[in-house]
Structure formats: C-alpha cells, structure tokens
Design brief:
alpha/beta; 4-stranded parallel beta sheet; 4 helices; globular
C-alpha cells in the first residue's frame, strides 16, 4: 500500500538539466495538479546550452509526450518556495544539500541513486538508449512510490 500523495515534491540533482527535470515531468503525469512538483540542482552549468534541459532529455521525454523545451535549470537557492513535504535526491551531492534544506523542518527525504546518462559514449542512438534507461528507471520508481505513470 502506497503512502498518501504529498502536497509538494522536489526532485534534486547536480545541474537540473537531466535527471531531476525527467522526474519532475514524470510525476506531473502521475499526479497532475494534485501535487506541486518542482526540481532543482546544486549549481548551474555555464554557457547558452546550459539554460535549457539537455537535448537528449528533451528527445526521450518527447517520446512520452512530455515537452521540456521550456524547462529552465535552477538551483536550490533559486527556488521560489522551499516548503516541500518530500525531497527526492537523485545524486549523493544533492542528498547532502537536501539534508541542509530539511534541517528544522517537517520534510521527508528520500535518496534514489540515479545513473548519469551524460557519461555515456558512442553513437547518438547509444546515448539516447542510456537516457531512455534513466527515464524508464525513474518512471518505474515513481510508479512504485506515487502510482502508475500515464
């Protein structure tokens, strides 16, 4: 039996360009407007391309009809609100920052170690396969925790 849906969920990773935007979009598919969902990273990458979601993320999420073209990476410090019921960290570094965020607050923390697909090499198709694997593992984890992804 799953716990009840939290009111607000934050997904956190290192740069908020790959794993956490995927998880944010997937939970939105599950929960719709029943849960406030956001994502952030520890820091921002430099350069124009770093102002959006990773292009491979956009491609594999578009396969599920999730449009991430408007996603803009942000850090913990750039969050408009830091009142979350649940913070899910996808990297060890983000977990350390989530613990700091939660100090003195009633917030549940979960750590879901998630492979970094940006480290994959090879052809475009091989790299897309690595991103799909991360997307699908996040979808499975979200379905287990919150309900099936539509």
């Amino acid at each position: 039996m799953r716990p009840p849906l939290p009111g607000a969920v934050l997904f956190a990773c290192n740069f908020n360009r790959v794993r956490s935007p995927m998880a944010e979009a997937l939970l939105r598919r599950v929960a719709g407007d029943r849960v406030f969902v956001d994502s952030c990273g520890l820091k921002l990458e430099r350069g124009d391309a770093a102002q959006n979601a990773d292009p491979f993320v956009e491609a594999v999420m578009a396969e599920l009809s999730c449009d991430l073209s408007r996603h803009r990476p942000k850090t913990f410090d750039q969050l408009e609100d830091s009142s979350f019921d649940l913070v899910v960290s996808l990297t060890p570094e983000a977990q350390h920052r989530a613990v700091e965020l939660a100090r003195g607050r009633a917030v549940e923390l979960e750590y879901w170690p998630t492979h970094d697909p940006t480290q994959s090499e090879g052809s475009r198709e091989a790299r897309l396969a690595a991103y799909r694997e991360v997307r699908d593992s996040l979808a499975a984890r979200i379905a287990e925790r919150f309900g099936p992804v539509r």
